[in-house]
Amino acid sequence: MSDRSAPSPTTARVLLATAVLTVVAGLTLAPRAVAWPARTLVLDALEHLPPRWNDLLLGGNADTALNIAFFVPLGAALALLLPLRWSPASVLVAAAVSLTVEVAQTVLPGRVSDPGDVVANTAGALVGTVVVVFARVMFRGDPGSAQRGSRRRA
Fold it and tell me: What secondary structure does DSSP assign to the chain, as a single string?
């Protein structure tokens, strides 16, 4: 029996996941002089939002909000590579990536490791995974329903 909800590991999906993972690794492991301008750019852009939106999005803690948002694409990209029933594994893989990054940051000059980042990053991966799972469930339809309907009419 085949799993109709299993995505084919297309080149585009693999390239997307690789690109997202590369950006995550680059920004989290790069020297602060490289990563900090990207962080500042995002925070500057968020300052142009109405104050209520800023409070809602950042919740008073910009670093946590950015860590959550940063891993949403990774969770989504990983979930797209897996069969639907295995999609939750994307959260575990993203958590492992985050843990690896935080451990690596303990030995990188100018970087600070924070266990709270692993929690925030994993939460972001969960959000990305949930979005992909929801979309796949909503848009896949039930291919068997057309076959069952044709059998009833016959």
Answer: ---TTPPP--HHHHHHHHHHHHHHHHHHHS-HHHHHHHHHHHHHHHTTS-HHHHHHHHTT-HHHHHHHHHHHHHHHHHHHHS-GGGTTHHHHHHHHHHHHHHHHHTTSTT----HHHHHHHHHHHHHHHHHHHHHHHHHH--HHHHHHHHHHH-
First to last CA, the chain: 25
pLDDT surpasses 50 at 1 = no
pLDDT in tens, 37-52: 887 887 777 777 777 7
Q: Count of CB atoms within 10 A of residue 36's CB?
A: 13
pLDDT for 146 equals 44
Q: What is the pLDDT confidence band of residue 64, given thresholds at 50, 70 and 90?
A: confident
CB 90 within 8 A of CB 82: yes
Residue 20 pLDDT > 60: yes
Q: Which two tokens stand for residue 14?
A: 């693999």
